[in-house]
Design a protein that fits this description.
Largest sheet: none
Number of strands: 0
Structural class: mainly alpha
Oligomer: single chain
Number of helices: 6
Low-confidence stretches: none
CATH topology of the domain at 33-131: Four Helix Bundle (Hemerythrin (Met), subunit A)
CATH architecture of the domain at 33-131: Up-down Bundle
Mean pLDDT: 90
Helix content: 55-70%
Distance between the termini: 84 Å
Length: 156
Amino acid sequence: MWKWVCHIGALVVAASAAACTRAPAPEVYAPGLGEVMTLQQMRHTKLWLAGQAGNWPLAAYELDELGEGFDDVIKFHPTHKDSPVAPKDLIPRMITQRLADLRDTVTKEDRDRFVQGYDALTGACNNCHQAMNFGFNRVQRPESNPYPNQAFAPAP
């Protein structure tokens, strides 16, 4: 019996030693809020260019990407620094409905309503920035195409 207890004790010691020498788990990457929002700015711009060109499939794609980006903000940055209001609370309240309204407009391929919906989304983004004490970061309609290597017109 003593031999058996010693054998179990040796296994416990060996397992403990192995656990102590095991490498730490790799750190999981989480994008910073600035990184996510930089991609949101790109998507916002491409959405405008697609809508102006009447490329409704591309506009729908960019809207979906914007939605996923806002989901990432909530997932990775539910709160942010010294902001008096959390992104997890602001985005559903200020942005989600604007995205849904614009998605409906894109589905109907309504160019006039697209401009109104885009401006409403842009205003909601600026209001969200203001509420989070980032009002110095204002977005607007793009004045030019920063993506000269992408065709925004619908495919023939």
